[in-house]
Design brief:
Domain ABC transmembrane type-1: 75-276
GO molecular function: transmembrane transporter activity
Largest sheet: 2 strands, antiparallel
Organism: Streptomyces sviceus (strain ATCC 29083 / DSM 924 / JCM 4929 / NBRC 13980 / NCIMB 11184 / NRRL 5439 / UC 5370)
Number of domains: 1
Radius of gyration: 31 Å
Strand content: under 5%
Family: Belongs to the binding-protein-dependent transport system permease family.
Subcellular location: Cell membrane
CATH superfamily: MetI-like
Shape: flat
Strand order of the largest sheet: 1-2
Length: 312
């Protein structure tokens, strides 16, 4: 028997030439993005040109007063009152959140009433209440511990600290409560099974896990605190806005000094926004989700995508 050998015809092309060609993907052109980008840039350019060519704005005064000693002192007081008020708000907020989640109806009701009052009244009204507290209580009498006139106790700094700190505590209480409730109850049960007390379980198990939920809104609250601190102008605390307004009223450069205040507010909020990003990234370690890219990272990605489209 002879084996049958199949032979390819002489006119058959080699098998290598039958391989499919490499697909060349051509990205879709998004002309609408280019048109909208041009329109937005044109509007921004018109706005910048309108302010730059305004005859009644003395931009040289903005540069001269930007690092004025009075302005720098005001910015320092704004930063100081914001940090101290935020510390009061965070500490008291954690305490209120624990009270709110307590099974004791008295502590839970008191925490709820505190949150209800301070979230339901404007910060400006609360500042004025503290500032005019001497109209109701002329003397602060704590017995043998402390006794003084209320006008000497409620200084502008103390009014600003209490007004901002106690109001912030109401919001931080809800943020902390949401973070504590986000931790699975099994964690608490496991800690109790190991013999941990309720307080130790809260400190060592629950709060560290809740920080991933608490940190992002807390950073937003602090940035908001930097701007809300301008309301203490009403209680004569000499922070950034009051310092710049005083210079503007004496030098007749009202708008210029408002620009100076805006620049310093933008600088402070931008610095703490960067700090917030890295703090969130630290507490997000081990999470399956990554943080969204920053605006600068988005710009870099968009530029790289645009360059690829142009190269094609």
């Amino acid at each position: 028997m002879t084996e049958k050998i199949d032979k390819e015809p002489a006119d058959t092309p080699p098998r290598a030439s039958l391989a499919p060609e490499t697909i060349k993907a051509i990205p879709v052109r998004h002309y609408g993005r280019y048109v909208s980008a041009v329109i937005v840039l044109a509007l921004v350019a018109l706005l910048v040109n309108a302010f730059a060519t305004a005859e009644k704005i003395q931009w040289s005064a903005v540069g001269d007063k930007l690092f004025d000693s009075t302005v720098l002192a005001g910015a320092g007081r704004t930063l100081l009152i914001s940090i101290l008020a935020m510390i009061v708000g965070v500490v008291l907020g954690v305490l209120l959140a624990v009270m709110r989640l307590s099974k004791n109806p008295v502590t839970s009701w008191v925490a709820w009433a505190y949150i209800w009052f301070f979230r339901g009244t404007p910060v400006y009204v609360q500042l004025l209440l503290w500032f005019n507290l001497a109209l109701i209580f002329p003397m602060l009498n704590l017995g043998p511990i402390y006794k003084d006139e209320m006008t000497d106790v409620m200084t502008p700094f103390m009014c600003a600290l209490l007004g901002l700190g106690l109001n912030e505590a109401a919001y931080m209480a809800e943020i902390c409560r949401a973070g504590l409730m986000a931790v699975d109850e099994g964690q608490t049960e496991a800690a109790h099974a190991l013999g941990m007390s309720h307080g130790k379980t809260l400190r060592r198990i629950v709060i560290p896990q809740a920080m991933r939920v608490i940190v992002p809104p807390t950073g937003n609250e602090f940035i908001n605190m930097l701007k809300t601190s301008s309301l203490v102008y009403a209680v004569t605390y000499n922070e950034l806005l009051r310092a710049t307004s005083t210079i503007g009223s004496t030098s007749y450069a009202v708008m210029e000094m408002l620009f100076v205040a805006s620049i310093w507010y933008l600088v402070m909020t931008s610095v703490f926004s960067v700090f917030q990003y890295y703090l969130e990234r630290r507490f997000a370690r081990g999470s399956s989700r990554s943080l969204p890219p920053t605006p600068w990272q988005k710009i870099r990605v968009n530029l790289m995508a645009f360059s690829r489209e142009r190269s094609v």
